[in-house]
Design brief:
It is built from 13 helices and 14 strands. With 303 residues, it is an alpha+beta fold. The strands form five sheets. A three-stranded antiparallel sheet has the order 3-5-4. Helix 2 packs across helix 3.
Length: 303
């Protein structure tokens, strides 16, 4: 049998030299390069396996240190459950997990209480919610009349917001619930009572339309529409132009409170809980009432 006469120009994956191969699957120019490439690949596999074993040891080392302990700190309970310390605090605050408070800085959780909590709350399979059918609709004309928007605008926004619609006898009908929900989110803050019209801004500040739109967009100035007229919050626009001062913030983030009062995160949460300091949740951040926290830590005085 004669050898293949096909010649395929390739580059050796080991040494980078050009060569002609007789198969498209050939990767190296010679047996020597092929052997070296195979040995390097096997060495990389051994290294990856060793690193994976080391990573497993590092991960499991903290777990082994608390495996046989009966009394656990909040951090150790988190290690045992595979969750953060703050998650353990939340479980204790909500009453799901028992804890013993020895002093203001010393608390323990029994291992048996962790096991009892898990035994008391077996996993229940989630039952998927049945979607209720949409039965209330707006016509396009009704949306235009109620919210003073253009027909083309309705179709553009509905596509971006995935507002359900249906066609019936040549007319488009839009889900009333979804349309109302969208416009409710777009509604201006009812606390804003003073507004500039575009003409007011042009007259007062001598700005062009494009400058107004750019400033309003870049500084997120609240606006509202009435028909074709657009109005901007007077207070926010004046702040953006530097002729008014923003209100003093009413909340500290936890990080700001730690710096302001030179305390740890646990100490801040301790005082917030024990003295019932109001707090709010914004996204993934917890914010604490600034006036209440300032009052708690203000210097004592005799009147």
């Amino acid at each position: 049998m004669t050898g293949s006469k096909i010649k395929i120009r390739k580059v050796c994956e080991w040494c980078g030299a050009e060569f002609f191969a007789q198969k498209v699957t050939t990767k190296c120019c010679s047996h020597k390069c092929n052997s070296r490439a195979y040995k390097a690949a096997e060495r990389d596999k051994r290294i990856q396996k060793a690193e994976a074993n080391t990573e497993e040891i590092v991960i499991n080392k903290p777990l082994k240190s608390v495996k046989d302990k009966e009394f656990l700190s909040f951090a150790e309970a988190g290690i045992l459950l595979g969750i953060s310390r703050q998650a353990v605090y939340k479980m204790v605050d909500s009453g799901h997990l028992k804890a013993a408070k020895i002093s203001s800085r010393l608390s323990f959780i029994r291992r048996s209480d962790v096991e009892a909590m898990l035994d008391a709350k077996p996993y229940d399979k989630r039952v998927s919610k049945q979607k209720s059918p949409i039965t209330e609709f707006y016509t396009t004309a009704e949306i235009k009349e109620k919210y003073s928007v253009a027909e083309s605008w309705i179709f553009v926004v509905a596509k971006k917001q995935n507002i359900p619609r249906t066609l019936n006898r040549g007319k488009t009908y839009w889900s009333k619930k979804h349309v109302d929900k969208y416009f409710a989110k777009q509604a201006p803050d009812p606390a804003i009572i003073e507004w500039y019209s575009v003409q007011d801004i042009i007259y007062k500040f001598g700005m062009t339309l494009s400058a107004i739109y750019t400033l309003a967009s870049s500084t997120a100035i609240p606006k509202r529409k009435e028909g074709k007229m657009v109005y901007y919050s007077k207070k926010h626009f004046d702040i953006a132009k530097g002729i008014a001062q923003p209100d003093e913030p009413q909340y500290y983030t936890v990080a700001e409170a730690m710096v302001r009062f030179n305390m740890s995160r646990d100490q801040i949460y301790h005082y917030v809980k024990d003295y019932n300091i109001p707090k709010v949740r914004e996204g993934k951040y917890t914010k604490i009432s600034k006036p209440d926290l300032d009052k708690l830590f203000e210097a004592p005085k005799i009147e």
